[in-house]
Amino acid sequence: MSPLPVLYSFRRCPYAIRARLAIAYAGLQVEIREVVLKDKPQALLAICPQATVPVLQLGNGEIMSESLDIMRWALAQNDPEKWLVQDEAIKNHSQSLLRLNDGEFKYWLDRYKYHDRHPANSQQSYREEAERFLVQLEEQLTKHAWLTGQTAGLADIAIFPFIRQFALVDYSWFSQSPYQHLLSWLENLLSSPLFNLVMPKLPPWKEGDKPTVFPPLNG
Ligand SMILES: N[C@@H](CCC(=O)N[C@@H](CS)C(=O)NCC(=O)O)C(=O)O
Predict the structure, then answer these.
(1) Ligand 1 in contact with 15 (CB < 6 A)?
(2) pLDDT, tens digit, 9 for 90 and up, residues 130-170
(3) Are residues 175 and 97 in the same domain?
(4) Buried (b) or exposed (e) across 70-86, using 16+ Cβ within 10 A?
(5) Pocket of ligand 1 contains residue 69 by CB under 6 Å
(6) Which of 1, 24, 137, 188 is most exposed by smallest CB count within 10 Å?
């Protein structure tokens, strides 16, 4: 039997969460290696010099160090609920939301979350900058149940871990904010069996450890 692909991951990282969501949804299995970002294993540095997580190493040696590439790799193998749509207009919309999420929104999210490291402006002003993206998401979710239509798509799953991170900065503010459709969308995803399956608590991986299969076999 050929060895499983290896996924270097970090439990709370939103990029790693979306990669794990796609892998579990597609019914694939990988060997998971939990990384401590402050003490990255040599095996990760050797295959990916910038050493971000997630990183996927396939049996043929191919390395993927972008979470969206890992998602697309998983969905190309199995996409039971059609997260990858064929419709060009929806695909373009999804891509533009993903660009905003990974670009501008992530930039302001980091400042909102770690405002003490960015004393130039107040936490509230960082939140307000980030909110410009939330306004757009809220508008979509007033039109249909998911960001790009009546069914869940790549954008929902890839953006959700970042909205989770935003909401967790101050959940009581978020739960009373004007983004009530977004709140329901978030809570629905947070309570899904899929999300819970991809959040196991794992000890940091070290060279020589017995492989840990992901998703957990008893999950
Ligand atoms: N473009 C990458 C970004 C991944 C990323 O930035 N991950 C963060 C953790 S959430 C990281 O590994 N940062 C490196 C570090 O903190 O040393 C992707 O989409 O996978």
Answers:
(1) yes
(2) 999 999 999 999 999 999 999 999 999 999 999 999 999 99
(3) yes
(4) bbbbbbeeebeeebebe
(5) no
(6) 1
